[in-house]
Hints:
Elements: E1 3-8, H1 12-22, E2 28-34, H2 37-47, E3 51-54, H3 63-73, E4 78-83, H4 88-97, E5 101-104, H5 109-120, E6 125-126, H6 128-139, H7 154-164, H8 169-176, H9 180-194, H10 199-208
Parallel strand pairs: 1-2, 1-3, 3-4, 4-5, 5-6
Helix pairs in contact: 2-3, 7-9, 7-10, 8-9
Amino acid sequence: xxxxxxxxxxxxVVRRGLLFFLKTQKDIxxxxxxxxxxxxxxxxxxxxxxxVLMDLVMPEMDGIxxxxxxxxxxxxxxxxxxxSFSDKxxxxxxxxxxxxxxQLKDVEPxxxxxxxxxxxxxxxxxxxxxxxHVMTHLMNGGKKETNYLDELTKRELxxxxxxxxxxxxxxxxxxxxITEKTVKTHVSNILSKLQLQDRTQAALYAxxxxxx
Length: 212
């Protein structure tokens, strides 16, 4: 009996790579592909897969929200997060949403297959980096880290995303149709609220938290 797998990732190359390798496994059948979280939720209802390989950062609906809905509507479906993010800001919410597997995209193909089979058989499978974050979180009493992004206004988040794309103040001003002076004020506020020293740190922070 084959393990029915649904792949949810907005990057075509990633989906093709997963499809190419997983098709070589006699006990795994790819039943559908989704390009965003909302589509993944709909395809789970239609194809009833055993396992979903879920990216985190996707358009329309992210992987965490999609996982919550899938687990609410189809509790027997197992969700494996497959992402580039290993920090606790992504790991803990994903596990709380109901994911029973969490792997990084640099995982060896054979190891991913082991994870799929293990999760299908009711085991929890976490990447070693992820396990460390979970243990640290538990050792800290489950206290939630301060998410400084919550302190940013919508406009400041837009400016931060533009910084992550490597744009200058002048380019950001043109893109958001505001003055360069206003951009400078936003940048100053962003650095202050995020407790960062410069634009480079701000860009890295934005990429880490999925803004770019």
